[in-house]
Amino acid sequence: MSEWGYIYKSLGATPVINATGSVTFLGGSTPVKEVKEAMEAADSAYVPLVDLEKAAGKRLADLLGVPAAYITSGAGSALTLATAAFMAGIEDNKIQQLPDTSGMPNEIIIQKRQRYWYDRCLEFAGAKLVEVGNEKGTTHRDLVEAITESTAAIAYPVAEQNPVDPNILSLEDVIDISHKQNKPVMVDAAGQIYPLENFGKYVKMGADFQCIAAKYMGAPHSSGFALGTEEVIEAISRHSFVGYEARRIRGIGRPQKIDRQEIIGVVAAVERWMSLNHEDRLAHAEKQSKLIMKPLLNVAGLEVELNNNIIGHQPFGVFISIDKEKIGISNEELVIKLKNHSPSIWTRIPEDEDKISIHVFGLNDGEPEIVGESIKKIINNP
User: What CA–CA distances, in Å, run from 300 to 101, 292, 337, 377?
Assistant: First the structure.
């Protein structure tokens, strides 16, 4: 068996143990066996990608019970392509005009309290983000008055594993208000892959579009897909890299290329996910989490808690918080020491939180024990 991380070491790069989760910064995902096999099989021949995208999209739409689907280079790409579709539609001259949005609706409305790190993807095609409401929340009237002729769509990110924010408009309200004014709703549901009903859930609720990151299901890191109405998905296809090449229309999607192997890999990942024994998957994640916790229980000055979440893309995990007066280092210092440890272990303290959040999504067999024992060693010798 090859040495752990040898391929990176051979280049002079440092491999790390990923106790952070499915983060782009560390490479995002590890394709599962079924996906690797499907991608290898895709090497046996070439295929017109315009045909493959249609066939793969139909398979996903049928599997998930939605009108249409389109595979993209990640959920972020789906957001950008959907924004372009909502602004320019299917008119070739407008498709080629972007990111110049002169003469077309170019505003994407988002509730102030829903601003998030990835809403930048909504601006890449030339759109302008318009906040509605304020730090205290959003009212029905706020949204009604914000919608104008310049509105291209209303954006709505969802993370059902987080507590419901009672101060914002619900997705149901946003869909109702927006559709009464003939404006589409786009939902960022990148991580909403479990429970399985969340696949396509928001489109079935009436949203015109939702995106999902396929990396969370064992597909390649740089893959995702859009779900939506037939009209929206058709528009997305015209703005995509396939539309750029097959139709010779120079849209903004050309840099967001995805290869035939990845398209096949996404289909294989979704097929596997829909038939997977998720009770076993969750039990394994819980076991990994408890292996991290085992050497850390009953340590004075260390608070260790199991993350009981099973919704979304990163189930279970461990929360850790240190009493600096008793142990001699802070949470932030432990994160740094773990990065400088051998092997290097990456964790983090999420924004607006005061404890270390460890996820098991990216851990290989044997690594949960290393994480737990390494934390104990550092705490005992701060």
Answer: 60, 17, 19, 14
